[in-house]
Amino acid sequence: MLFVLDLLQTIPTWHLVGLFIAGMVAFIISTISGGGGAMLLIPVTSSMVGTAIAPPVINVATFLSNASRLYLFWHDIDWSLTKYYVPSAIVGAWLAALVFSRLDAGWIQLLVGAFLVSTIFQYKFGKVSKTFDMPKVGFVPVGFVIAFMSTLVGGLGPILNPFYMNAGLEKESLIATKTANSFFVGIVQIISYTFFGILTVKICAYGLVLGLGAVIGNIIGKRFLAGISISQFRIMLLILMVISGLIMIVRNINVLF
Question: For this UniProt entry, which segments traverse the membrane (predicted)?
Fold first, then answer.
């Protein structure tokens, strides 16, 4: 911890403040609209700390955020779903850390972006609450694939929302269950980053500042969430998914050429 504090003293103050504010704003939006905080941080964090280390920095921050959100939404967690999601997601996160430096994540983000944009049409602009039946056992393959991809690119939260929505989760239960799943996967991501030599003191320092901002954002966001109706929440969820998808497509369109 002392090494981290010493490193923070060598980083420009404006840089630390920028990361803190970015984390806070991203996770206020994330709490209100059902996720996407990590994804919103990808362009900001990449510009501040560099593209190469942005994914582990974001995952460290997200882990800290999820710990606080887990406490805030503990009573709304659907544990019966978590037991299907977490085991396979842990395997996916570990394998992704192994190939972290060997795989181009541009194609992943481009395909995910296209899927997210399509959700506005799948849900008929918010007029329907479900587009397909999502059995709980279906979260076994979903957990593996999403954890694998998010470990590589640093955040794919919104892509899980359609699966949770089609499993019948809304508002607090969606956020709570999603947070519990992400928290347990986050533990493995941190351990695997460390095991494969990816996690450094510098990454921990950046992640700590970003994560502290995210914790404050969760607290503020929960207050706003209480005053939002289920239909409003669904619309905001769709808007977030479409915006996130468009950002991912624009940022990775170059892989097509």
Answer: 12-32, 39-64, 84-100, 107-125, 137-160, 180-199, 205-221, 233-253
With a CB cutoff of 8 Å and minimum separation 6, the contacts of 239 are: 33
Place of tokens 């095991």: 195
Extended beta strands in the chain, E state: none
Q: At what angle do helices 201-225 and 54-72 cross, to 10 degrees?
A: 40
List, for residues 226-244, the tens digit of each pLDDT value. 888 888 887 887 887 788 7
**pTM of this prediction exceeds 0.90:** no
Q: What backbone phi and psi angles, to 5 degrees, belong to 50?
A: 105, 140
Q: Which of 74-88, 120-134, 179-193 has the highest mean pLDDT?
A: 74-88
Q: Which amino acid is located at 122 in the chain?
A: Q
How far is the CA of 204 from the CAs of 15, 119, 153, 197, in angstroms?
A: 15, 35, 17, 13
For residue 245, give the H/E element and its range: helix 230-252
| Residues ≥6 apart with Cβ < 8 Å to 193 | 56, 59, 97, 100, 199, 203
